[in-house]
Amino acid sequence: MQTHDESNSYQPVSVSPRKVKAGPPLNWISGSIKLLRDNWGVILPAYLLVIVAPVLIQLVSFELMFRGSLITMVLIVSAIAVLTLVLNAGMIAVFHSAAEGRPRFTSLFAAFGGHSIVHLVLMLLMMALVALAMALVGYWIVGTADLERALFGTGYYGDAMSFGLGTQNFMLRALFVFLSVVAAVTLFAALFCYVVPLIVIAREGVFAAISHSFRASFKNLFVLIFFAVNVMALSQLFFFPLFTISASTASMSFWVVAMILAAIVWGAVLTGAYYLSFRDVLLADEPPLGEPALDTAVAA
C-alpha cells in the first residue's frame, strides 16, 4: 500500500465492512501499546498537542467569550469544538501513518483540508439531528404507551409494591424503557462509531461514512461490546494501583501529576486501539502493522 503525507495528499484508502473474530479487541489494545512504544517520538507529541491546543485557545479566548455577545460566545465555543474534533481526527491519521510503517507528525493536520472540515461539521449536525429525532420518538413512545404515569405517576409506589398485576405491568414497562434506551444508544453509536476515520482516512462523504460505519458496527456488534467491557476493566486495573500509590504519598501535587500523565498515556493507547478496530473492520487489504506498505496497493 503506497503511503503519502496525508496533510498534502488526499487519495482515499479502500474500505470494506467485514466481520472479525472475538479475539481482536484484546489485540487492538496490545497492538496500540506496540505502536505507541515503537513510535512514541511521533505519537506522544502529537497527542499532547491535541490536548493542549484547545485548552490554550480556551484560555486566550476566555475574556472575549464572557465580555462579548451571546452570538460571539456561541461562535467561539463552536470553533473550539470543531478544532478539537479536527485535531482528534488528525490523531487517527497519525496512528494510521504509524501503522503503515511511515509515522509522520504532519499527519496530525490531515483533517484541516476543506473536505474533512466540511464533512466533520456535517457529521456534528447529523448527530444533533439524529439525537433530536430519537428524543422525539422516545417522547412519542412514552406518551402513547402511558409510561410516564406508570413510572412517575401517583400510583408508582403502590403499583410497584403491590406484588400483583400492577407490579408485573410496572416491571414490563420499565424493561421496555430500558431496552428502548439501550437500542437507541446502540443505534446512535453504530451510526457514528467510525465516521471520523472514514472521513479523514478513507476520504468519504458524511453519508457514505455513516452507512459504512453502521454496517461495520452491526456486523461486529458483540465484538465491539466485548471491546468496551475490556476497556472499562483494564481502565480500572490501570488507574486503581496509581490512585492507591498516589494516595499513600499524601501529596496532592504528586497525585495530580501522576493522574494526568496516566490519563495522557491511557488516552493515547485507547485512541490507537480505536484506530486498530477501524483498520480491522473496515480497511480493505491492509498491510502488516509497522511494516512499509506495498507500492502496488491503494494510497493511504
Automatic annotation (TrEMBL):
It comes from the Bacteria. Residues 1-20 are annotated as: Disordered. Keywords: Membrane, Transmembrane, Transmembrane helix. The chain crosses the membrane at residues 40-61, 73-96, 117-142, 170-200, 221-240, 252-276. This is Transmembrane protein. It comes from Marinobacter excellens LAMA 842. The lineage of its organism: Bacteria, Pseudomonadati, Pseudomonadota, Gammaproteobacteria, Pseudomonadales.
